[in-house]
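[recover] target loaded
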């Protein structure tokens, strides 16, 4: 087998959506004759840990090397799985961190990862280096390894770097420094992978030395094995279950849906009584208070954070799956959860702005697409969903579109890129 060195800060047993893409790539790489060795974190204090995902990686034979440093998660490792703080505190800490650490507060871990990688590469031959960001400090580590050992480097953007929807640059220097670093990394990369067309277009505009063929689009996907032999949860009282899977942060919020549902409960209590809003993940105290203030406790069901297997079971047990993005600079965002939803074949309520997520939801073919902050239209869409649910006529997706996003197929495409640079070496 050929060998790929993978650098991934976010990797099991850490949970949440940031680990899924790299985990699934490494899970399926051996099926295409590539043996992955992953350099990742050691023990961490984090908002979610999922041992089922770690078992998945180990069962696939992924070689995992761990190291720790002075990044926040490593320093908080004794706390284990932590509660998410109120959003105002989380956002404040994030901005403080972005003020003092460029490109991010994982730069100390990335330095340790570099030292570990050097010790590995001195004793083992690897054919390709693959790194996925954020955090983008890992791109710097991978580029240094590319330069030192002359191994082809493939970098993977799960989100944009400069121009990121959650970027915070308190001074012109911060903006300049981020762009300079990104420019330097891109000049050293042999191939650039992105999750959607808009990120690709923006990279080509910002960095004219990149050619169209330098950047490959490999979208997020779903793992069909996750859905095999999953028994839906049967309940006696049949309601239309609308599920949100994941966390709320920054401008991604349930408030517009909750306010729309409040109006529905007043105007059409018969319809509201037939709908249950479900939340799998960290719902946070401020959102619980909003539910109580609106008097919606009888319509809302929280499951808390679930491991990936249990989350998938809730997904297949729901009738409609909800995804939300705000209007604030999110045109280039395609949430990983949206593609997990696609794998279920269930209808999707997409309260999203114009952009890549909306385009994907349209191609899926079984989506109710609404502007994210349009409370009246969200309310009317809930009425439409209820009507179709009662008639057993909820929309069905485009099967061909779903199959295009199977993670096995996406990993096969990725490893073909690996193979191209292997041939170039030979």
């Amino acid at each position: 087998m050929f060998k790929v060195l993978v650098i991934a800060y976010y990797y099991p047993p850490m949970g949440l959506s940031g680990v899924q893409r790299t985990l699934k790539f490494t899970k399926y790489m051996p099926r295409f004759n590539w043996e992955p060795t992953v350099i990742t974190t050691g023990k961490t204090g984090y908002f979610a840990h999922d041992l089922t995902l770690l078992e998945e990686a180990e069962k696939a034979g992924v070689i995992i090397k761990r190291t720790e440093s002075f990044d926040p998660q490593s320093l908080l490792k004794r706390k284990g799985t932590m509660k998410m703080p109120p959003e105002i505190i989380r956002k404040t800490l994030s901005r403080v961190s972005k003020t003092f650490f460029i490109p991010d507060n994982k730069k100390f871990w990335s330095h340790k990862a570099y030292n570990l990688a050097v010790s590995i590469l001195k004793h083992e031959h690897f054919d390709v280096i693959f790194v996925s960001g954020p955090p983008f400090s890992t791109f710097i580590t991978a580029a240094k390894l590319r330069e030192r050992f002359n191994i082809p480097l493939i970098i993977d953007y799960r989100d944009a770097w400069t121009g990121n929807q959650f970027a915070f640059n308190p001074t012109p220097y911060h903006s300049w420094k981020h762009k300079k670093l990104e420019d330097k990394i891109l000049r050293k990369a042999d191939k650039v992978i992105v999750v959607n067309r808009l990120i690709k277009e923006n990279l080509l505009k910002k960095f004219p030395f990149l050619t169209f063929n330098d950047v490959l689009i490999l979208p997020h996907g779903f793992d069909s094995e996750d859905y095999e032999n999953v028994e839906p949860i049967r309940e006696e009282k049949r309601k239309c279950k609308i599920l949100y899977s994941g966390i709320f942060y920054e401008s991604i919020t349930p408030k517009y849906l909750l306010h729309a549902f409040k109006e529905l409960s007043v105007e059409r209590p018969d319809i509201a009584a037939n709908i249950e809003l479900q939340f799998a993940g960290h719902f946070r105290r401020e959102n619980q208070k909003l539910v109580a203030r609106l008097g919606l406790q009888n319509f809302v069901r929280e499951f808390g954070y679930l491991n990936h297997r249990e989350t998938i079971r809730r997904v297949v047990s729901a009738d409609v799956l909800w995804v939300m993005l705000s209007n604030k600079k999110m045109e280039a965002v395609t949430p990983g959860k949206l593609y997990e939803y696609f794998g279920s074949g269930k209808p999707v309520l997409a309260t999203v702005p114009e952009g890549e997520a909306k385009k994907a939801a349209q191609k899926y073919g079984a989506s109710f697409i609404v502007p994210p902050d349009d409370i009246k239209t969200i309310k009317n869409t809930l009425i439409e969903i209820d009507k179709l649910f009662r008639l057993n006529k909820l929309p069905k997706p485009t099967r061909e579109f779903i199959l295009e996003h199977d993670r096995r197929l996406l990993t096969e495409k990725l490893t073909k890129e690996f193979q191209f640079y292997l041939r170039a070496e030979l």
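[recover] notes: The chain is about 45% helix and 15% strand.
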